[in-house]
Amino acid sequence: VFHAKAGLRALGFSVDDTPVPIICLSSRDVSLEKLPDELLLRGIAVSRWYAGGKSYSSVPQNGAIRIAIFATHTKEQIDRLINEIAALI
User: Fold this and answer.
1) Predicted model pTM
2) β-bridge pairing 22-26 and 64-68
3) Torsion over CA of 69, 5, 89 and 85, rounded to 10 degrees?
4) 5 CA to centre of own chain
């Protein structure tokens, strides 16, 4: 989790420093509207959440992308996630 968060911070995202394995990328940071679809085309699934409707209370008004990191994710998979996001933003 900390490796993923550090990599996303290096890309300019504001990511908390907790051990929680859910990472929320806010659209306040960059335009994330197409990112989930583009990542899915590359074989990486993330969740898109919108304020209002069915959502978590912590989701900013502009929406967010939530990334779940599992214990089974390898360093290489996390590096790939970070590299794909870097290429898309």
Assistant:
1) 0.82
2) antiparallel
3) -30
4) 9
| Dihedral angle over CA of 55, 60, 61, 65, nearest 10 | -60
User: What CA–CA distance (Å, rounded) separates 66 from 57?
Assistant: 13
Taking each helix axis as running N to C, give the angle between helix 2-10 and helix 75-88, from 0 to 180 degrees, rounded to the nearest 10: 20
What is d(CA 86, CA 89) in angstroms, rounded to the nearest whole number? 5
Contacts for 42 with CB less than 8 Å, ≥ 6 apart: 84
Q: What is the pLDDT of residues 49-88, one digit of tens each?
A: 665 555 556 666 667 888 999 999 999 999 999 999 999 9
For tokens 């390898």, what's the residue? 74
Determine phi and psi for 18, rounding to 5 degrees: -100, 165
- Going by the DSSP 8-state scheme, the letter that residue 71 receives in this structure is T
Beta-bridge partner residues of 36? none
